[in-house]
Amino acid sequence: MLIAFDSRTGNVRRFVDKLNIPAVQIEETMTIDEPFVLVTYTTGFGQAPDKVLSFLKKNHKRMVGVMASGNRNWGEGFARSADTISALYGVPVLGKFELSGTSKDIERFSQEVLAVASY
Q: Taking the model in full, what pTM does it have?
């Protein structure tokens, strides 16, 4: 399973670097021709980043799940980009993490990726 990700401050990149899963940082114009899980940050007051939304317009059909980072200080806006993307494209939210995630976040996400990969 491929991880497609975007990172603004480096937290998502640090999270993805802890995984033992092939990963690629997205570009708006790129096309992914295999199933992938999206890992993204949350911006503003809980919005999905514009770059990620542009990427998904072309690539959402291969996405099998989404996970997002956020800051718990935003309360209900915490990692809400995952909820937005899930609602837009009908994929499950595989988790949410703060900053660059904990070892438990890594373990839980890896299990979720294995579960969706076996579908």
A: 0.95
